[in-house]
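Exercise: predict the fold of this chain.
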Amino acid sequence: MMTERFNSSPRHERYDQAQQAPGSPAHGKFGTKHIGHLGDDPNRDANRMDEKRKEHIAYEYLCHLEEAKKWIESCVEEELPLTTELEQALRNGVILCKLGHYYAPEIIPYKKIYDLDESKYKVKGLHFKHTDNFNFWLNSLMHIGMPKIFYPITTDLYDRKNMPRVIYCIHALSLYLHKLGKAPLIEDLLGTATFTEEEISAMRKELDKYGIQMPHFGKIGGILANEITVDEAAVHAAILAINEVLDKDDPKETLAALLIPSAMLAKVERENSNRYHNSLCQSKRDKALRSEEQVTDVDESERDVYEFILTQGEIQDQINHVNTCVKREIAEAKFRQAVSNVNTAILSGDAGTLLNTLRDEEARLSEVNPDNIQWYVDVLSKAVRDMSEDGEGRELTRDEIQDILRIANEIAENTRLIEEAVLSVNSALEGGDPDKTLEALLDEHLDLAGVYQENNDYYQEGLLHKKREKEEALGEACLLTEDEIQNVILEMNKKAEYDRSTNRAIEKI
């Protein structure tokens, strides 16, 4: 039973639920990613399943990187590079030494860290002396009694042979230090952290290069439990105390009991005390009821006490369950507020404010292009007006906003292509080559009517004449618009037909 003392909820199990959350590999930061569905081809289906599995692993590892980044930042009180750049940033060992100084300053004083300001690294890159930093960090791990089973080796870091092993060690260190009361608990971001499809794809390629099996981050607690000797009697007494205090119906006392170090419980958050108390009380009542319903010939005095009360593992499971629920509720509240902020920004008509709210990650919107912001203002505002006129006094939903963004992006892209095509026509006119002008006029994005190859000389002459007239009237160089080009084409078609009819009449004479 006591081997559960370091356990947190298995993250691989939670991933099946988390992958349905926005921002996970099934959805991606940029909305749903259609991975495909099974068909009749076993080989194709197997490949798809393998692709999905690799994508899941890449996403989960990115979450572990983000968790490690935030935890180190909270320890060293310094902002680290982006999550996708963290592996590279760790290689010179400076960040690891700063972390070591946090929990073992006597082993790694700042003056001992090679290239502390990273000035040499920024100019010349890695130097063999940077490996000294890694060795200092290993010494700090040994100093605090960190089990060696988690230690990476120099080439894992310096040569980037196995960076997941380094991140795995950092996660184990965070839990170990938290148990010693020397560091904050690492945050669990699985299912809530968001990454772009490009970031997930890039990480997947990096993991393929390693050619290694990903460490089981979810088993760190169990491994620590096996490696570290604890006072089993003290743990047992702490668990009994928690069960006893549950009967007093006092969330504050329950929290105090959960925080007793000898209980060896992880991720106990003070702000969730009421939820812990209610969840644990219900779980204990349910277990006691099940035990009473069991028919047994064993005398009650001889039955194991843990048949009636919660074990350490069961208590930890409830803590993890509450934490997950609270985290999702917070994420959902932030999501709703972010979407509401977008609606408020639409009503304000301010392009800068709208862009900021659309780019807020909490809103879970994708494909936001700053270049198209005025289109977003116009199209979103129209959608709100239309709803108001239809008597729908409500805000746009996230999905409605996302659909409108896609429509606005398409309009903006089509407009850009049309503008480029119009520019090409004007440039071709200046080139003086009727064939090039005809080619520009036939661009599919212009959608011009009545463009005939046999009239290309007329188009060249008529359009260039129109352009010169316009420039003379405006007193500056200018471009013909799409409508002006269309009008000239129609005029030139009439002129060409008239000339051909006249020539035919003359020939008959």
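Check your answer against the key: DSSP finds 20 helices and no strands in the chain.
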